């Protein structure tokens, strides 16, 4: 297990005094202390049972060439091994220059054919409801960051440069095709913390962020151990090649919970289920597959829910504009995420937060 924050000499920052009352301070501190303790227990369970990731399915992608408003383009990937593609669907019912632009970031097991959101869900159909839809392709185990070095264990020759893509070439490309600057980053699981931090660091590029079953305290006790195990399992990536050996400053500057004072005024939406099974569980080939996949999804979602609830409370106290949805049923599975995107769309949150 990784050392805890106190042993490292790291002080968990509390919200900016200009956005809080003194009475709220003990509540935030207690919440953050409890999240680290609970995270350690949950991580131990996840690692011991090898419940590290949820694999991708085999559903067909929607949005073939020829669909109205569809583009499949290659943009500057800053030397990454695989060409950086982005698939986009312009709004079919409104002017793309004024329609909200929703950018979907993939999960840990992202593939290089299409984004998991396209492969596993129908959210590209948002383009028929007044939205521009954007799906970058690739980034398995990347956390959408610029890595310090290539990961030889994964067969990389050049390091990931996803943060550069998301802050430079992707916004430039979206401007070039006439998509509006009213942009939301939707980060799924692995990508959730990256989406939140990107919206925090680059408000001129991204007006809001969605954390979809994400993890908001990446340096909590045991989290770094889990993340390293998961990344190695998904593509044999060595996270020491991302920021260096933990502890390091980059890991702390990318941890949403440690950056709460900078989030005043930012728009976030946090979603996580309780881990309880429901009608949207993935279907396996046999009942054994169903049980195994469901248990995996439940364990991971419990950890996400626990961190997301605590972060939502702390971010509100820090002055962020937070909407939270924590339904009574839901595991770490595409069906629940698809439903939540349509719930957000129906609420109008993508328009103005």
From TrEMBL:
What terms describe the molecular function in GO for this protein? acyltransferase activity, transferring groups other than amino-acyl groups
**Transmembrane parts of this sequence:** 35-62
Sorted keywords for this record are: Acyltransferase, Membrane, Transferase, Transmembrane, Transmembrane helix
Where is the signal peptide, in residue numbers? Answer: none
Give the matching Gene3D superfamilies: alpha/beta hydrolase (3.40.50.1820)
Segments for region (Disordered): 1-23
Q: Read off the Pfam families from this record.
A: Esterase
Q: Which PANTHER family match?
A: DIACYLGLYCEROL ACYLTRANSFERASE_MYCOLYLTRANSFERASE AG85A, ENTEROCHELIN ESTERASE-RELATED
Task: Please give the name of this protein.
Answer: Diacylglycerol O-acyltransferase / trehalose O-mycolyltransferase
What does UniProt list as this organism's lineage? Bacteria, Bacillati, Actinomycetota, Actinomycetes, Mycobacteriales
